[in-house]
């Protein structure tokens, strides 16, 4: 079942912050975040595993609330290079099924 | 090195043609994937190979035929496609350690146009 992402789109000025949410109706084993620029492949950002944790590098971080089956991606002090479509991919607790189901995506545009 | 390569980058084919897409990785990953992505949509899983065996087929029409000749290579054979099959075809690979993270790394994709 496809996870639900919100918002669908967001426009920021450089230096502003944004939060992208991803929620699932089923129990998750892991949440994977990707950024895709137009005409390019999705680029891996980070993975969060069951157990509830927060990760981050540079000004991008993410959290995973296992009780709510929700993950959030935090973009702070946004840069022009952050523009693109962000997808969360989820993997269910059936660990024998090695596959991701992607949310519909959040289009992020950072303006000067 | 987290590189997955795909060839060709672009492909235009007629509905009666037979063509193949190729994907290669040298990261020692034993799981490989084919996804299809339409414009402004998320990637949709087509096939998963684990240790060179087909483990998931998401009810993909038989005009798409995957093949995994060895642990580094993944092919997608195309035959009698329809115009609605035009899309970006993405290959990905991941490790297969039990209980470990299975980060999928994507190749640049093949942009397929069916006339």
Overall mean pLDDT of chain A: 90
Q: Give the amount of beta strand of chain A, in percent.
A: over 45%
Based on secondary structure, the structural category of chain A is mainly beta
Termini separation of chain B comes to: 37 Å
* SSE pattern of chain A, N- to C-terminal: EEEEEEEEEEE
Q: How much helix, percentage-wise, in residues of chain B?
A: under 10%
From the spread of the alpha carbons, the general shape of chain B counts as: globular
What's the SSE pattern of chain B? EEEEEEEEEEE
End-to-end gap of chain A: 37 Å
Largest interface comes to: A-B, 24 and 27 residues
Rg of chain B, Cα atoms, Å: 14 Å
Range of strand content of chain B = over 45%
Question: How would you sum up the global shape of chain A?
Answer: globular
- Count of separate DSSP helical elements of chain A: 0
β-strand number of chain B: 11
Outline the biggest β-sheet of chain A: 6 strands, mixed
Low-confidence segments of chain B: none
Low-confidence stretches of chain A: none
Mean pLDDT of chain B: 92
């Amino acid at each position: 079942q496809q996870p639900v992402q919100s918002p669908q789109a967001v426009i920021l000025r450089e230096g502003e912050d944004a939060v992208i949410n991803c929620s699932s109706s089923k129990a998750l084993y892991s949440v994977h975040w990707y950024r895709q620029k137009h005409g390019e492949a999705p680029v891996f950002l980070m993975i969060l595993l069951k157990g509830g944790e927060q990760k981050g590098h540079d000004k991008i971080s993410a959290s995973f609330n296992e009780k709510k089956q929700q993950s959030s991606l935090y973009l702070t002090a946004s840069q022009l290079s952050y523009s693109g479509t962000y997808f969360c991919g989820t993997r269910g607790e059936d660990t024998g099924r090695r596959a991701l189901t992607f949310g519909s995506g959040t289009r992020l545009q950072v303006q000067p | 090195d987290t590189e997955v390569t795909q060839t060709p980058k672009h492909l235009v084919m007629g509905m009666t043609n037979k063509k193949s897409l190729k994907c290669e990785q040298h990261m020692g990953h034993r799981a490989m994937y084919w996804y299809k992505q339409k414009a402004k949509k998320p990637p949709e899983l087509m096939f998963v190979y684990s240790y060179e065996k087909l483990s998931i087929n998401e009810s993909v029409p038989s005009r798409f035929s995957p093949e995994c000749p060895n642990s580094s290579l993944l092919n997608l054979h195309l035959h009698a496609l329809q115009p609605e099959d035009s899309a970006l075809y993405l290959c990905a690979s991941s490790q297969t350690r039990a209980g470990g993270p299975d980060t999928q790394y994507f190749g640049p994709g093949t942009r397929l146009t069916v006339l």
